[in-house]
């Protein structure tokens, strides 16, 4: 097993996660199998109980792990399925060591940070790196490890020490350290400054780690004299210094690494001689180029409570991006704070109220993502009502679906006291109730989490067509409350369809309003399994409906090229590869067929 460690210096937010993911993409394109590990030095056991304002969104894995959003980057870039153990936290490490101490496994020894904590970290890395994540048998060839935070943080010290020991444990030729640092350009002089990176590398070396490769973040490409200066003061060959300068879209980062021969430098450090050849990134080139040439826009109003921080909805944004590029549209997201839509804001902050409603009414489609707590709930209900009454495409995810159900009950079925017991435990008409297996006292890891199966109950519904007319799909969940099954017959009699349910038929997974151009709600989170090459079908439906293309998409999904329903797709692309005589048609340059090109003339994005 070979290991690539990615660390960061100077400031946080440089893009270590994207850099680590892009390194994985380039190495994968060289023919190597890749796995990833993210180390988060915080004391939380996992990310599940942290506010999105604190640490961005909580990403959910198939096994129910609530992890750092960077694992979402790894899955999207590398098209792999990680486990909860691929996210290491200080809390997990200390908990495992303390559990062993309580069991007497240290035989009376004094338990210390060195060697017990550091050994636990190394053992965890070695164990998890051997778990296959790409659907193939046997371990991967290379494990990319990202260390969260910046060099010098107190909480990351045990990990720095452990990784220094680990580099000696695995030996030369098996460990490569990539240090991501900042090379700022001061507006006053317009010169690229190397001193912050010099200090960062000096601090790293003082802690026992020596970088093999420098990945320098800057607004523009590094000048040659700057590279030479960094090489001289940081003791890194100039050929091993790459620039991660600002680019038009995120899909160009792996191309930057390829153009600067970063893969050759990494492979040399890892002593990997026999690779099939140069990395083949034709699909990435096509996708990045297409993104830059998109002209026609599609406006989506994102109605949520965490609109002040885009990372709070990172996976939702990425899913929208995948779908919009797939539909050949340039995405414009209008952020609408759900509280600004409420009547109280009209009185207190009339300008914010007017602006919010202007954005909502000017959007081509409306998306209400998941969330917790009662703040802004009424605004989400109003957004669902506006979309329903004005035939505006709507996608509600988790809480967004639940609020659409409450809105329907109040304004269509005239049940004015309808509500969720999350917000009113004594609601007279409880449309949304607490799910039985949850816990009301412990918050961490007590929700309905991870991959669950949804069976389609209405064959000709839009959702089933978008998924390729399969019988069922596996999607990821993260919730405590759901639609009250006792009220389902009443809802269906009033025209609201529950087109997707779980295997018991008691948990409502997907709702639709049949006579609406696109009004869909999902109890699960489809954004977590969206990939650049396999956009989430429900997001594609939203973008297609918002850009006047839904009829064509649904027609294509019903064409002879669609795989029969008896062949279940595990959340695969809603538009399967073109088939000829039972075999997939191979497309030129490694491209897969696009949404509206059943003859294979497009590219998934």
Could you explain how this protein is built, in words?
This protein is α/β, with parallel strands linked by helices and 605 residues long. 34% of the residues lie in helices and 19% in strands. Strands 11-10-12-13-21-20-19-16-17 form a 9-stranded mixed beta sheet, with helices on both faces. Strands 5-2-6-1-7-8-9 form a 7-stranded parallel beta sheet, with helices on both faces. α5 (113-129) packs across α6, α12 crosses α19 and α15 (377-389) crosses α16 (399-411). The longest helix is centred in the first third of the chain and has 17 residues, at 113-129. It is globular and about 75 Å long.
Class from secondary-structure proportions = alpha/beta
What's the count of strands? Answer: 23
Q: Which regions are unreliable across 5 or more consecutive residues at pLDDT < 50? A: 560-605
Q: What is the rounded distance between the termini?
A: 32 Å
Widest sheet: strand ordering: 11-10-12-13-21-20-19-16-17
Portion of residues in beta strands equals 15-25%
- Helix percentage: 25-40%
Radius of gyration, Cα only, in angstroms?
25 Å
Keywords:
disordered C terminus; 9-stranded mixed sheet; 20 helices; alpha/beta; about 20% strand; globular; 7-stranded parallel sheet; about 600 residues
Secondary structure: elements and pairs:
Blueprint: E1 2-8, H1 16-29, E2 34-40, H2 52-55, E3 59-60, E4 66-67, H3 70-78, E5 87-89, H4 90-102, H5 113-129, E6 142-147, H6 157-170, E7 175-182, H7 195-206, E8 213-218, H8 224-234, E9 241-245, H9 253-259, H10 262-269, H11 282-293, E10 297-304, H12 314-326, E11 330-337, H13 343-348, H14 350-362, E12 365-368, H15 377-389, E13 394-397, H16 399-411, E14 418-420, E15 429-434, E16 448-456, H17 462-466, E17 472-479, E18 481-483, H18 488-493, E19 497-501, E20 508-512, E21 519-522, H19 537-546, H20 550-557, E22 579-580, E23 583-584
